[in-house]
Amino acid sequence: MLDVQQILKWIVTAIVLTVAIVLFGVVLNIAGFLLKYAVKVLIMLLIVAVVVRFFELLRRRR
Predict the structure, then answer these.
(1) DSSP state of 62
(2) Cα separation of 3 and 10, whole Å?
(3) Half-sphere exposure of 45 (CA within 13 A, CB side)
(4) CA 24, CA 54: separation in Å to the nearest integer?
(5) Mind listing the pLDDT tens digit for each residue in 12-56?
(6) I need a labelling partner for 4 at 20 to 30 A (CA). Which of 23, 30, 31, 59 fits?
(7) What distances in angstroms separate CA 39 from CA 18, 26, 29, 32, one per listed residue?
């Protein structure tokens, strides 16, 4: 037979797990939102680096 303290421990454990899952979902949602912008910025920086490298090579040839 379960006593009251053991039932309360299970309830507290369930509440803590629920809060942890919700917070994890929020973190993943924010990370997914920021990931879209991070990829765009990374692509732009890569393009700028390629253009700068191209002009540097043109300048060295002269």
Answers:
(1) -
(2) 11
(3) 6
(4) 44
(5) 999 999 999 999 999 999 999 899 899 999 999 999 999 999 999
(6) 23
(7) 31, 20, 16, 11
Token digits of residue 23 = 């917070």
Sole residue written with tokens 């629920």: 18
Token pair 């990370």: residue: 31
Using CA atoms, how far apart are residues 36 and 29, in angstroms rounded to an integer?
A: 11
Q: Which amino acid is at 40?
A: K
- Nearest-angstrom CA–CA distance, 38 and 58: 30
Class of residue 18 by CB neighbours under 10 A (exposed 0-12, middle 13-18, buried 19+): exposed
